[in-house]
Amino acid sequence: MHYEFGNSRNRDDGVIKLGEVEVPKVNHFRYLGSIIQNDGNIENDVTHRIQAGWKKWRSATGVICDRHVPTKLKGRFYRTAIRPAMLYGSECWAVKQQQLHKVNVAEMRMLRWMCSKTRKDRIRNIEIQRQVGVTPIDTKIREGRLRWFGHLQRWPTNAPTRKLDSIEIVEIRRGRGRPKLTWDALIKRDLNGLQSSPSIALNRAQWKSLIHVADPS
After folding, report:
1. Quick one: three-class SS letters along 23-60?
2. Which residues contact 180 (CB under 8 A, 6 or more apart)?
3. Which residue from 23, 74, 86, 198 could staple onto 16, CB 3.0 to 4.6 Å apart?
4. Cα-based torsion angle of the residue sequence 159, 164, 166, 171 in order, rounded to the nearest 10 degrees
C-alpha cells in the first residue's frame, strides 16, 4: 500500500503508518485498472493501456498472424478483444495530441503486422484500416468520451457525479505556459466539431446516432 495524492506544495509531510509499518509515498497509483498521477496527467495511464493492448495482441498471435485467417475476421477479433483493452478508461482522459499519436502508432503497428505488411510496402494507414475493417482509434476515443458525456447529462442534477459540475474552484495564480488541457475543454471542442449542443444528449437515440462511428465493412 502506498499514499500521496495531491499538490506537493500543500500536502502535510507527516508520516502515515498502519500499525508499525510506514506507508511509503508515491507519485502515482493504480485504481480499478487505471493509473492515477498526483499531477493530474494521464501519461502513465496511456502507456499502461498500450501495454495492455500489446499483451492481449501477443496472446492471440496464433489467430491474428495466421495467413490462412481472413483479414476481415482478424479485424473483427481485434475490435472485440484487443481494442477494448487499449480503450479502457479512455472516456475520462483529457488526452493530448501527442498521446493520441502514441496510441495510434501502437494500433497501426498491430494492424500492419496482422496484414503481414511493413512501412516499406508504402501502403497508407487508411488503406490498412479499410482492409482490416477498423476505424482509427483516436476516433473511437472521441466517441467513447462523448458517449460518457451523454450518459452524465441524462443523470439527475442531484446525482453525486453531476454535483461536480457545480463545484466552484477558487482562483489561484497560474504558472507560466499553456494551461492544462481539461476534459470539459475537449467536450466543448467535440461539440463544436459536431455543430451540436449539450441538450441533444438528453435524447439517447439521437445522441447515439450523432456520435457513433461505424467500423468499415
Report:
1. CCECCEEEECCEEEECCCCCHHHHHHHHHHHHHHHHHC
2. 40, 94
3. 23
4. 170
Which regions in the chain score pLDDT beneath 70?
1-14, 166-172, 174
Looking up cell 479512455, which residue turns up?
90
**Does the predicted model carry a pTM greater than 0.85?**
no
* Pairing relationship of beta strands 34-37 and 17-18 according to DSSP bridges: unpaired
What DSSP line would sit under the chain, residue for residue?
Answer: --B--S-TTTS-----EETTEEPPB-SEEEETTEEEETTS--HHHHHHHHHHHHHHHHHTHHHHT-TTS-HHHHHHHIIIIIHHHHHTTGGG----HHHHHHHHHHHHHHHHHHTT--GGG---HHHHHHHHT---HHHHHHHHHHHHHHHHHTS-TTSHHHHGGGPPPPP----SSSPPP-HHHHHHHHHHHHT--GGGGGSHHHHHHHH--PPP-
Half-sphere exposure of 152 (CA within 13 A, CB side): 17
Per-residue model confidence as pLDDT tens digits over 35-67: 887 777 888 899 999 999 999 999 988 888 888
b/e code 33-66 from CB counts within 10 Å (16+ = b)? ebbeebeebbebbbebbbebbbebbeeeeeebee
